[in-house]
Specification:
heterodimer, A: alpha+beta, Gyrase A, domain 2, Elongation Factor Tu (Ef-tu), domain 3, 6-stranded mixed β-sheet, 6-stranded antiparallel beta barrel, 19 strands, globular, B: OB fold (Dihydrolipoamide Acetyltransferase, E2P), 6-stranded antiparallel β-sheet, 3 helices, 9 strands, 18% helix
């Protein structure tokens, strides 16, 4: 068989190249995690219960994820908002303190260099970027730096995600202030005496929080959170099945330097003020292509895919029209534990992107029937402001 | 100790006359994680040793299982179509894959017994 050997070899190779550890590495091992290299870090894929059980626990109760491999960058200075707007198609000048937005660093050709969360704390903007891109993001920011702006790569900060319908009740029991947070807001809050920066957001489609704290406090914070009723440790395996069911993009798979935000179905993240006719229209990298696609429609679109059988259809599987012509490719795919069936995402030209369209996915030289469907596969259950 | 024979590819075989039952080991299912799909061969299929006969997919990965023997597939564990998790729960029992009628003599010395297999597994961890 294949997988055991491959995994072991990959592990060994990465060890020899000094794989990085998060501040919770020892804890993961104590909890019996199956560890694997991810974006240069040794990360927990799952703990003793396995991916499917962790997935269901997050959907029904609450899971704690270590996502300290992600990049946390602070941008400050009088011109910080205006300067960031030259890199991101977001409204940051008028972003209120405590508000959070989803955005992306775009390339000059209108592709997505990285997708990120950005929130404002009084005078500073806090960016949370993908682990695999954080060095490149930082270089880009430092290259474009102007006077009156500073960039602080907070490499000594950990990030924990507490996700699930019982995350709020659990966290409120030790930090009542979090009840004032609604979806996509942020605040500096003490949790069990530990200084934290908490946002009400995540990558699972569930209500929940992402909590940033100094690396020296990370183990204390994780221990406090894991001791809460209903909270179980969850690994990157469940994080991936949860985000796929929620229809959320993984950079490097579902979005990248060659896909535009409009093709990816992420135009909602570009506010009116940055679109044609807006008060600060354009003036971000790739604006020409992106604004044109918003007006005239993109040539391809990200869609959901439901294989009709039980066989998972994974990333890179070609999608064929009934006349056997190649029309697209799966970008993420696997088994959706809450859906109870295989699910996938793909890019298709508009003519094939209508929900209900039947196509064939090529898997191991077999043509498996699949149906185009709307995203997400599992409805989001965020704590929206009422 | 069991009467099972093991391969370096983490399969087990239980021999009963000229019929062998095949599955994957507990170590293999643990490495793969939760199985979500098992594609079994058709009964009546003639296979040669080394031929890929079963496809398994876990949440994490997909892979092929090769036949350790020459022979004819005479029975498959249909239950795995609906309950692939049986492979995780009981890999050497209810999680068996198929039965094969051997068409040639088998050199049992080319397989490991349980203690030799456990030594192999310990060397991998």
């Amino acid at each position: 068989m294949f997988a055991p050997k491959e995994t072991d070899q990959t592990n060994r190779l990465c060890h020899s190249r000094h794989v990085k550890h998060t501040p919770l590495n020892d804890l993961h091992h104590e909890l019996g995690a199956k560890m694997a290299p991810f974006a240069g870090y040794e990360m927990p894929i799952h703990y003793t219960g396995g991916i499917i059980s962790e997935h269901h626990h997050v959907r029904s109760r609450a899971g704690l994820f270590d996502v300290s491999h992600m990049g946390q960058i602070r941008v400050g200075g009088k011109q910080a908002g205006a300067w960031l707007e030259t890199l991101l198609p977001a409204d940051l000048i008028n972003l209120e303190a405590g508000a959070q937005r989803y955005s992306f660093l775009t390339s000059d050709s209108g592709g997505i260099l990285d997708d990120l969360m950005v929130y404002r704390l009084e005078d500073e903007y806090c960016l949370v970027v993908n682990a695999a891109n954080k060095e490149a993001d930082l270089s880009l920011l430092q290259e474009r730096l102007t006077t009156g702006v500073f960039v602080d790569p907070r490499q000594d900060f950990a990030l924990l995600a507490l996700q699930g319908p019982q995350a709020a009740a659990a966290l409120e029991s030790i930090a009542p202030a979090v009840k004032h947070l609604t979806f996509m807001t942020a605040s500096e809050i003490r949790i069990a005496g530990i200084e934290c920066c908490v946002t009400r957001s995540g990558y699972t489609g569930e209500d929940g929080f992402e909590i940033s704290t100094h690396e020296t406090s990370a183990l204390d914070l994780a221990s406090v959170l894991l001791a809460l009723d209903s909270v179980e440790p969850s690994g990157l395996g469940a994080r991936d099945t949860l985000r796929l069911e929620a229809g959320l993009c993984l950079h490097g798979n579902d979005i990248g330097p060659r896909t535009s935000p409009v093709e990816a179905g992420l135009s909602w993240a570009i506010p009116a003020s940055r679109r044609s006719g807006g008060v600060r229209a354009g003036a971000f990298p790739g604006a020409e292509r992106i604004l044109k696609e918003i007006e005239h429609g993109p040539s391809q679109k990200r869609v959901g895919i439901r294989p009709i059988g039980k066989a998972p259809v994974r990333a890179h599987a070609p999608l064929l029209a009934p006349n056997n012509t190649l029309v697209g490719e799966v970008t993420s795919g696997g088994f959706g534990p809450s859906v109870g069936a295989p699910i996938a995402m793909a890019y298709l030209p508009s003519t094939f992107a209508e929900p209900g369209t039947t196509l064939e996915a090529q898997v191991r030289n077999k043509a498996l029937p699949v149906t185009v469907c709307r995203l997400p596969f599992v409805p989001h259950r965020y704590h929206q402001k009422t | 100790m069991t009467d099972l024979k093991f391969t370096a590819d983490h399969e087990w075989a239980r021999l009963d006359g000229d019929i062998a039952t095949i599955g994957i080991t507990d170590y293999a299912q643990d490495q793969l994680g939760d199985l979500v799909y098992v594609e079994l061969p058709e009964t009546g299929l003639n296979v040669t040793a080394g031929q890929e006969v079963v496809v398994i997919e876990s949440v994490k990965a997909a892979g092929d299982i090769k036949s350790p023997f020459n022979g004819t597939i005479i029975e498959v564990n249909e239950r795995l179509g609906e309950e692939p998790e049986k492979v995780n729960e009981d890999p050497t029992g209810e999680g068996w894959f198929y039965r094969i009628q051997l068409s040639s003599d088998v050199d049992l010395d080319s397989f490991m017994d349980e203690s030799a297999y456990q030594n192999l597994v310990s060397s991998l961890d």
